[in-house]
Amino acid sequence: MKLTRRVMMVAAVAAALCGGRAVTAQDACYVIENTPKGIAIKIGDQPFAEYVVNDPETNKTYLWPVYGPTGKAMTRAFPMQDVEGEVKDHVHHRGICFGQEGINGSDTWAERLTFDKGEKTTPAYQERLKKLGKQQHRCFRELTAGQGRAVVVSELDYLNPDGSKSVTEVRTMIFHAANGQRLIDFNQDFIAADADATFEDKKDAGLSIRVPTTMSVDSKKGGKIINSEGLTDAAAWGKKAKWCDYYGPVGDEQLGVAILNHPSSFRHPTTWHVRTYGLFTANPFGTLDKETPNGPHTIKPGEKLQLRHRFVLHKGTAEEAQIEAAYQRYVGK
């Protein structure tokens, strides 16, 4: 079934489940609609997120824009959109995305624009350009929406520079809300293809969100990083923790995003590649400092590596949003 027709059917079913009427965000009736580059998830007529699967400018799929509980964007707009006042570094930090600098030597963290924009022009980075791989969206296994949540199951192939496949990812994203917060469960299953797949020990790897510039610690407007172990700001980088939260001002509101790492996720508790300039990544692959060694990990054909995370888009600080309680609900305690 063609994508456009299938998404139209999902929207029609969701409308029927919600009584075939216009709904507000408070009704918690979810709809999935087609977009030129993928799909959009809405709560009634309120935008929640867009999932981009066929952007010709990049080698990865990503969620952007993503809206928090008050309707404000919770991701930096660059490079998809040019917004005055935003920091415009690291063109490959797109909304919410996953990347790995080395799966069998293939790089899906960086992208061609990383080099074409002139950010990194040294010979070493030109060698990285030759190693660029691609996340190729193959199909949607499931698109369901209605009362209470929307579910998107996407299948992707990770292609090496020569076009061969290293792994397949089955990505399940569940969009829902609770306790005045918007939640995205981001479940990833990586299955090795016809040969061993090695996830290399890389600093630049993992599940990321690039937060709004005003929220970053370096903006000096009140942005803050804190993890479940009580480490804050730069001290949280490279450390293992059950969860990490990044909050600060967005417009006239104090907003934040937490990433929760489930106990069933690979190498829980994960290491956090979280930067004061706004990058926020759960990275179980890279050895970021000597205290938290990780190392490469190989899966054999047909074997699976699983990552399990939840994004919590919230109002206020981590303490006000009760992120520890949100984590306990996530793990079922």
* Name of the top-level CATH class: Mainly Beta
The coarse silhouette is globular
Strand order of the largest sheet: 1-2-3-4-5-11-16-15
Helix content: 10-25%
> What's the helix count?
4
Q: Which structural class should the secondary elements be placed in?
A: mainly beta
State mean pLDDT (0 to 100 scale): 91
Return residue spans where pLDDT drops below 50 for at least 5 consecutive residues: 12-17, 19-26
Number of structural units classed as domains: 1
The CATH architecture can be named as Distorted Sandwich
Q: Major sheet, described briefly? A: 8 strands, antiparallel
Total count of strands: 18
Q: How far apart lie the N and C ends?
A: 41 Å
Radius of gyration: 19 Å
CATH topology: Beta-galactosidase, Chain A, domain 5
The string of secondary-structure elements, in order, is HEEEEEHHEEEEEEEEEEEEEH
Please state roughly what percent of the residues sit in beta strands, choosing from under 5%, 5-15%, 15-25%, 25-35%, 35-45% or over 45%: 35-45%
Structure description:
- It is a single chain.
- The chain has 333 residues and is mainly beta.
- The chain has a single domain (3-331), classed as Distorted Sandwich (Beta-galactosidase, Chain A, domain 5), CATH 2.70.98.
- It has helices at residues 3-17, 112-116, 123-129, 323-331, and strands at 30-35, 38-43, 46-52, 62-66, 96-100, 134-146, 149-159, 165-178, 181-192, 197-199, 205-210, 224-227, 243-250, 253-261, 272-274, 279-282, 297-299, 304-315.
- It has an eight-stranded antiparallel beta sheet with strand order 1-2-3-4-5-11-16-15. Strands 6-7-8-9-18-14-13-12 form an eight-stranded antiparallel beta sheet.
- The longest helix is centred in the first third of the chain and has 15 residues, at 3-17.
- The radius of gyration is 19 Å and the shape is globular.
